[in-house]
Specification:
Elements (H helix, E strand, L loop, with lengths): L21 E6 L3 H11 L11 E6 L11 H10 L4 E4 L4 H18 L8 H13 L1
Parallel strand pairs: 1-2, 2-3
Length: about 130
């Protein structure tokens, strides 16, 4: 399910499936994109920051057209203890690899991978980013 911003409309709460992972997309070419994500974060339950949130940064192949400071993106990941993934949607191979990575994360967050919790996976992602 996709949403352009949060909070989600409450009139359909009873029809909404369980939310296992929230992937915030930030277009590196749009300051509005970052501002929208920052505003939406206030509407996310704190429990989601225990391994069920990630930031997906798109447009990274066009560094010359950046409108968003990379430090601001890294800070979001740090402040919200959530992994930051980078992707160039215009390149099919990278797009497919990123989709597969998100699907693996979703399976873990949904509890479909025995022995791995969203919290332990999130911790592993943060430690691997430090290396």
């Amino acid at each position: 399910h996709l949403a352009t911003s949060l909070p989600l409309p409450s009139e359909r709460d009873h029809l909404r499936p369980r939310i296992d992972l929230i992937a915030f997309m930030i277009d590196i070419k749009s300051k509005y994109s970052l501002k929208n994500v920052e505003a939406s974060l206030a509407h996310v339950d704190a429990n989601f920051f225990l391994g069920k949130v990630c930031f997906l940064v798109t447009g990274v192949g066009r560094v010359n057209y950046c409108s968003v400071e990379m430090n601001a993106i890294w800070k979001l990941g740090e402040v919200y203890c959530s992994p930051v993934l980078f992707c160039e949607l215009e390149l099919e191979g990278i797009r497919v690899a990123t989709a597969q990575r998100l699907l693996r994360m979703l399976r873990i967050c949904a509890g479909h991978v025995p022995g791995v919790s969203a919290l332990s996976f999130g911790s592993l992602m943060r430690h691997s980013a430090d290396d």
